[in-house]
Each structure stands twice: as C-alpha cells, then as structure tokens.
Amino acid sequence: MSEPYDPYIPAAPSSSYSNNGQKAPAVNSKTAAIQQQIDDTVGIMRENISKVSERGERLDSLQDKTDNLAVSAQGFRRGANRVRKQMWWKDMRMRLCIIIGIIILLIVIIVPIVTKVRGK
C-alpha cells in the first residue's frame, strides 16, 4: 500500500537515488525549476497585492478629495446665488432711483408750465 502524494513532503531517500546510489539529477533539476517558478509566482503575487493595496489607498485619497470638492462646490453655489440676489436688488434700487428722479424732474418742469398757462 503506497502513501498518497504530497508535494510538501520530501520524497523518501530510496526514490531520489538511482540504482547505483547516486542522486537522480533530472528529478532534482525539475523540482528546483518548479520551485523557482513557484517562488517567482509568489513574488509576483506579493508585488500585485502591494500594488492593489497602494491603489486602494490612492482611491481612498481620491474619494476624500472628491468629497471635499463637492462640499466646496455646494458652498460656491450658495455664495453665487447670494451675490446674484444682492446684485439684482442693487440693480432694482438703481432703476427705482432713476425712475423717481425722472418723475421729480418732470414735475419740476410741468408744474410751473401748467400754473403759468392757468394763470393767464
């Protein structure tokens, strides 16, 4: 009865040696090559995980900046509306002053003429 294969348990010494007692180089070189590929893959995956972590931090920073910009935009919109209303009232006051000035000027011109014509 043989044991199930487990790649993490080294092979028994009898299986890693050839018939004359020397190590079988093909098995060790294949194992070393596979182990090197695994190590390379693990290294790449660690780099990828660190990059994803950094990207997450940058995304969080970008989200914070976006929120701050939205708050600033809302404040700017309120301020712009307030200034627009103030300028509208200022414009209306100026128009009313001009209209009242014209009416007073017309009264000053027309009243003496009318009283002069009636007096004759």
Number of strands: 0
Low-confidence stretches: 15-19
The fraction of residues assigned to DSSP E strands is under 5%
Written as H for each helix and E for each strand, in order along the chain, the element string is H
Largest sheet data: none
Mean pLDDT: 84
Identify the overall geometry: rod-shaped
| Number of structural units classed as domains | 1
Keywords: Coiled coil, Membrane, Transmembrane, Transmembrane helix
Main location: membrane
Family: Belongs to the synaptobrevin family.
Subcellular location: Membrane
Task: Give a short synopsis of this structure.
With about 120 residues, the chain is mainly alpha-helical. It is about 80% helix and about 0% strand.
Looking at this protein, list some descriptive labels.
120 residues, mainly alpha, 1 helix, rod-shaped
Describe the secondary-structure layout.
Layout: H1 25-119
Task: Give structural notes.
With 120 residues, the chain is mainly α. The protein has one domain (30-119). It has 1 helix and no strands. It has one helix spanning 25-119. It starts with 24 loop residues before the first helix and ends with a helix. Mean pLDDT is 84; it is low at 15-19.
